[in-house]
Amino acid sequence: xxxxxxGRSKKAIARQSRFxxxxxxxxxxxxxxxxxxxxxxxxxxxxxxxxxxxADEAWTYRDFCKDLQAAVTNFKSxxxxxxxxxxxxxxxxxxxEYEHFIRMPALLFGGLFCIAVANIIQKTITSxxxxxxxxxxxxMNWFIVDLTYLARGYAIALGATFAGIxxxxxxxxxxxxxxxxxxxxxxxxxxxxxxxLGSMLSR
Length: 203
Known about the structure:
mainly alpha
C-alpha cells in the first residue's frame, strides 16, 4: 500500500517537473520568437500550396516566364519583375510538374524575410513581450503574407532588403575586437542589394 502511494507521488512529482521544464522553455523569448517565425513560414507554405493561382500570376507566367528570352526582353508590362521571371523559368526546369511551382522563388524569399525580421527584432527590441507582439503583427499581416508567397517580385525585394538590414545590424553589434569585416559579408550585402533592385526591375 505504501509502495503504491510512493509510486503515485513519484509520478506526480515527475509530471510537475516536466510541466515546470516546459514553462521555463516557453518563457524564453528567443524560443517563442523562433516558434512564431516558423509559424509565419508555415502559413506561407500553406497559402502557397492551397491557394489557387490568381489572374495576375497566370498573366505573369503566360507572357514572361515561358523562357529566359521572354523574361529578359519582354517589357510590354510592369507585371514582368525581371528577376522573379528569371527565377520562375529556372524553377520550371526543376519543379515543372508541381502546379504551384511559379510561387517557389517568392516562397523562398518570403521565408528569408521571416528569418530576417525575427533576427532584427531580437537584436533591436529589449522588451520580451514587445518582441513577440511585433513579430506576430508583421509576419501575420495578411497584406505582407500575400506579398511574400505570391509569384511576384515583392517577396524577393522584401527578403533581400531585410536580410541586408539584419546583416548590417549584426555587424554593428560586434565588439571593437571583432569589428573586422570579412569580404564575404561585403559580397553578401552587395548581392542582397542587387536582388532587391533586380526583383523590382520591370521596364
